[in-house]
Structure formats: structure tokens, C-alpha cells
Design brief:
The chain contains two helices and 23 strands. With 325 residues, it is mainly β. The chain has a seven-stranded mixed beta sheet. The chain folds into three domains: 147 residues, Immunoglobulin-like, CATH 2.60.40; 81 residues, Immunoglobulin-like, CATH 2.60.40.1120; 89 residues.
């Protein structure tokens, strides 16, 4: 059954996507089917449906489990029919979905939109037609009440933590813990403002912006709520490099957060660490091998751009450079 999981999910999505085309059919209204015992070899053993949105833009979210009940025959799902209030239906073939004998399969959070103009239905019925490798085919039906979900607006301003200035062009996205808010996102305007309409409940909100360290927060809201976000600028890249024709040198360096450190390195050499505005970096490099007539060149860089340098030639000469970021 593992191989059929992705196939069946895709096919169900295709079937649900065709719902809008079936909503305009002229049919006599029929009442949704009530749950009934399954007499065949396929059963829909669990079904839950939730919905949100105004008439004409209703999103339904469906989760179900289906099982082959005899343990003796593989089942090929051959059709899928969804029925909503008023007898509105959509049907699609799903010829390649296979359920092995005795197996069970769950599909979670499959969603589709009804853009027919109708309000959300109070009940939904699913009928799956099937054929078996051995024995007759049939159908399995399940019906359930539709749970209406509340929509709320989450809004606020994204600002620079150091200066308080708004950050335009920041991305704000949510991922749901209790509802269908997965991959919902927006971008802040020039004033750093954002607004997202989400399903009430618990989710994570994440903010990202170029030049800033991203932040993620857990949120739990039941009604419209403001939520302002501050982002810290990404620390500067504190770097130095040593190049030249000398073989080795002894390097002494220190900075605002680390004390003096000394090491013997082979040229060429480079070092990178995170730093912040105002960091101090001191580098001193001495050609340390007797008879070494080579040269050294010390560079201090900020985001790849040189901001200080020094050079020396031959043992035991020293090149010293320092800079404030």
C-alpha cells in the first residue's frame, strides 16, 4: 500500500479540483447519505470534514481512512463521488489507486475550493466505487457533518530591533499546529505592515528579511489579534586572511569578545567568525622560520571587503593590522 499512497492522494486532489464544474449541473436535490454498514470489502472507516470561507470561496479540508476488510482481496478504487447539501456532486475516475488485501490507508488534510457561489455545506458524503482482483466490485460510502472553522486576522509591524525602523519586504509566514494554515505567507509593505487571514487556533509564525536574523514564534489566537515582530540585523562577518610566499608564520589576534590567541599557521590562511558593529579585531603575523625570505600580506575584511591591511618580508619581520567593525 505504501506505493499507492502518493498516487491516491494526487488522484483525490484531481477529483476534488473538478468539484466546481459539477456544481452547476441541473439536478434534483437529494439528501446526503447517512452512515450505513459496509457490506463489501472496502470500508471508509473514518471521515472528518472541516470548512472555512465565505460563499463562493469555501475551502473544504477532508481526512479519511479506508480499509480492505476481508484480508483476502486487493481493491482498485475506480471512482470517487462527493455530495454536498442540495445534492451537488462531483465525480471523477481514479483507476490506478490500489489498496492491498487487509491493508488500511489514511489521507489527511486534502483540501479543495468550492467557487460555485454556494455557502458552506453542513454535511458531506463520499462514495468510493471499487473493483476487486477477485470477486465482485461495489462501493463504500461515508457521511459526516462539516465542522465550520473560524477565520481571524493576524496583523502587525515588522521592525529593526536595534533602531525601531520598519522593515519593508519582509516575509511573514505561518504553519499550523491545529488547522489548515500551512505555507500561508505575505510580504510587509514599505511601512513594515503585514496582515494574514488565518484559521483560529495554534500555529507558528515566522518572519524573514534580507540582512536580518529570522525569528519564529508560537501563536494561539481565537479572534483578530495584533502581533508585532522585531528582527535583529545579521551580525557582520569578521574575517582576516594571510597570503604571501612565506611558508609559515605565527599569528596573534584578539577581538572585542575573545582574548588574545596565538597560533602557528601555514600560508595561505583565513579565519571567519560572527561579530557585531563596533567589534575590534587585531591581527599580528610574524614570519617565524629562519632563512624564510618570503613575504606575508595580512588583510582584515568585512563582508568580503578589505578594511585594513599590512605586509612584511623575510624572517623575522611582522605585519600588523587592526580595524573596528
Amino acid at each position: 500500500m505504501r506505493n499507492s499512497r502518493s498516487v491516491l492522494t494526487v488522484l483525490l486532489l484531481l477529483a476534488l479540483a473538478s468539484f466546481g464544474s459539477g456544481c452547476g449541473d441541473k439536478k434534483s436535490p437529494t439528501a446526503p447519505s447517512e452512515p450505513r454498514p459496509q457490506t463489501g470489502i472496502l470500508a471508509i472507516t473514518e471521515l472528518s470534514v472541516s470548512a472555512y470561507g465565505p460563499p463562493g470561496d469555501v475551502t473544504y479540508i477532508l481526512s479519511l481512512r479506508m480499509s480492505e476488510t476481508t484480508g483476502q482481496a486487493a481493491v482498485i478504487i475506480s471512482s470517487l463521488t462527493m455530495t454536498l447539501d442540495g445534492g451537488r456532486t462531483a465525480t471523477a475516475p481514479v483507476d490506478s489507486a490500489r489498496l492491498n488485501a487487509g491493508s488500511s490507508e489514511r489521507m489527511n488534510n486534502v483540501s479543495w475550493k468550492d467557487t460555485s457561489g454556494a455557502a458552506a455545506s453542513s454535511r458531506l458524503t463520499i462514495t468510493m466505487g471499487y473493483r476487486a482482483d477477485t470477486g465482485p466490485g461495489g462501493s463504500a460510502t461515508a457521511s459526516t457533518a462539516v465542522q465550520m472553522l473560524s477565520l481571524v486576522t493576524l496583523s502587525g509591524v515588522v521592525t529593526n530591533r536595534n533602531t525601531g525602523a520598519p522593515i519593508g519586504g519582509a516575509t511573514v509566514e505561518v504553519s499550523s499546529l491545529t488547522g489548515p494554515n500551512v505555507d500561508k505567507k505575505t510580504t510587509t509593505d514599505a511601512g513594515g505592515r503585514y496582515a494574514l487571514v488565518v484559521v483560529a487556533g495554534a500555529f507558528n509564525i515566522r518572519a524573514l528579511a534580507n540582512g536580518f536574523t529570522g525569528q519564529s514564534f508560537p501563536i494561539d489566537i481565537a479572534s483578530d489579534a495584533p502581533f508585532n515582530i522585531t528582527l535583529a540585523p545579521t551580525p557582520a562577518a569578521v574575517e582576516y586572511s594571510i597570503t604571501g610566499t612565506a611558508r609559515t608564520c605565527s599569528v596573534t589576534y584578539r577581538n572585542s569578545t575573545n582574548g588574545t590567541s596565538q597560533s602557528r599557521v601555514t600560508i595561505p590562511w583565513s579565519f571567519t567568525r560572527s561579530g557585531t558593529t563596533g567589534d575590534f579585531l587585531y591581527v599580528s603575523c610574524q614570519i617565524d622560520s629562519g632563512g624564510d625570505t618570503g613575504s606575508i600580506f595580512v588583510r582584515i575584511l568585512k563582508h568580503g571587503a578589505q578594511i585594513a591591511s599590512a605586509s612584511a618580508n623575510g624572517f623575522p619581520n611582522i605585519a600588523t593590522a587592526d580595524a573596528v567593525y
